[in-house]
Specification:
This is ABC transporter substrate-binding protein. With about 475 residues, the protein is of the alpha/beta class. It is built from 19 helices and 19 strands. Helix content is about 45%, strand content about 15%.
Length: about 475
């Protein structure tokens, strides 16, 4: 009950901010009749708390009806998500869609979204303060035009404890560090002392421990390395690039410079034990890599740990691919707002899209990091003294490989591949195999598992061959 009153009070405060912010701006175009905008979102309550309640304060002539995608799961697990989602959209006919960038790109190519450029021009909608790199991505995925906008994005950065760097005479991290740079820097910190008092150069607080396999995959991410090529349907891990990644991860883990949490921090002692296990938050780790949510953790711990000793925190952009140090592949757009093509409520839907991606909404959301980094630049210059520029420095690079993998690689393959990889890399960790030997087996057995999974899926779908293969076979049968 108390939380509901707090939520209502906050809405009244935000309403005042919205009204105050709108008095100096251009008048909003009147919607002549009351309209209902249907919005596709994963959860109704979450949408209203994040967007809908604030929008309604300013737009009492537009009613929002949330069409929750939770409905898709009423009959159990979904085997073909793409088909299920398309059937859901065809049935529910939402006006506004909130999708990830891969789905956005796919829907643009299929002609299922409304172009926004003409609406932006018509209303003189200000996009100048939006992070330009995000607009570039959305235009690139939109075949040169804008079909959606995103209010926030997600990106990891390198957090560092400036006090530890000064104490041990180590040069501060810089923008554009690679994983090799991070690990080399971590090794410059002392490794002496017992586990309850010593410091570490680097760490990421994995609850199940930082294994060779997950560290290698983390290092591979900014390099753009993939375990499977969805176009050729080949497993590609037995390569020189992957070998170097695993060797770097192996050397890092063996250096004793990395913090490697091996137990569940909640198992003994609850929240107190949890915070004691978070060594960067407690000032005992020089660097970590994390996202915008970590800023909230750094704030909250000051009030949750008795006699807490604060320290100076800085962030820099990275990690990067040494071959492309100006870009970052560690960027995610999960809430691209778009309007369905042929929506009967385009104008009202556009009002909602404008609001979600607008400056006034961004000003309110700048008071928290709960929903990612704001696309509107300059709204949050610092967080508790931490400069936010690092989140905007590197050019995002987003490919559609994840969507391509989902479309072309059977889901069942991944559990088998994980078992193979975990077994072989485990043998490397126990010194029973070399990295080269393990990767060769992973690729060979992984390929066999992939071939079998594709074969089973094709048999199940009743489509034994790709269209191109079927066409080629048909030509051969006809003697062409």
């Amino acid at each position: 009950m108390r939380s509901k009153w707090i939520h209502k009070f906050m809405l009244l405060v935000m309403a005042g901010l919205l009204l105050a912010g709108c008095t100096n701006g251009p008048a909003k175009k009147d919607v002549k009749t009351t309209s209902t905008v249907r919005v596709m979102y994963y959860n109704e309550d979450s949408f209203h708390q994040t967007y809908g309640d604030l929008f309604t304060i300013q737009n009492d002539d537009i009613k929002i009806e949330v069409i929750s995608t939770d409905k898709m799961y009423r009959d159990g697990e979904i085997e073909d998500y793409d088909k299920a989602l398309q059937d859901f959209i065809d049935t529910e006919q939402p006006d506004v869609l909130m999708v990830d960038v891969g789905r956005y790109s796919q829907m643009v190519s299929e002609g299922k979204l409304t172009e926004l450029d003409s609406l932006i021009e018509r209303d003189k909608y200000n996009t100048e303060s939006i992070y330009p790199a995000l607009l570039d991505i959305l235009k690139e995925k939109g075949e040169g035009k804008l079909y959606g906008l995103t209010p926030t994005f997600y990106r990891n950065v390198i957090y560092y404890n400036a006090d530890l760097f000064a104490e041990h005479g180590v040069e501060l991290p810089q923008d554009g560090m690679t994983w090799q740079d991070i690990i080399d820097t971590a090794r410059r910190f002392p490794t002496d002392g017992d586990k309850d008092t010593r410091i570490y150069g680097f760490g990421r607080e994995h609850y199940r421990g930082m294994t060779l396999d997950n560290l290698a995959n983390t290092i591979a991410s900014p390099l753009g390395l993939k375990t499977v090529n969805p176009e050729t349907k080949k497993v590609t891990v037995n390569t020189e690039a992957w070998k170097q990644v695993y060797k770097l991860a192996q050397e890092a883990l063996e250096s004793d410079a990395l913090y490697n949490l091996q137990e569940d921090p909640f198992e003994n002692g609850g929240m107190r034990n949890y915070y004691e296990s978070q060594l960067f938050l407690m000032g005992r780790m020089a660097m970590t890599v994390n996202g915008p949510y970590y800023l909230r953790e750094l704030k909250e711990i000051k009030n949750r740990v008795q006699d807490y000793k604060p320290f100076q925190v800085g962030i820099v952009a990275g990690p990067v691919d040494p071959a492309n140090p100006e870009i970052s592949r560690d960027v995610y757009l999960n809430n691209v707002t778009a309007i369905r093509a042929n929506s009967p409520n385009t104008d009202a839907a556009w009002e909602l899209v404008k609001f979600i991606n607008g400056e006034q909404y961004a000003k309110i959301k700048s008071r928290s990091m709960n929903d990612g980094i704001l696309s509107r630049m300059g709204m949050t210059k610092d967080s508790d003294g931490i400069n936010m520029e690092a989140f905007y420095k590197l050019k995002p690079a987003i490919d559609d490989s994840s969507s391509a993998v989902e479309d072309k690689i059977p889901y069942e393959f991944y559990s088998k591949f994980y078992d193979i990889s975990s077994r072989e890399i485990g043998l490397v960790e126990s010194k029973k195999k070399t990295i080269e030997e393990a990767l060769q087996v992973i690729e060979e057995e992984g390929q066999a598992a992939l071939d079998q999974a594709i074969k089973e899926k094709e048999a199940k779908d009743g489509a034994p061959k790709d269209k191109e293969e079927a066409s080629a076979d048909s030509s051969e049968d006809q003697g062409v």
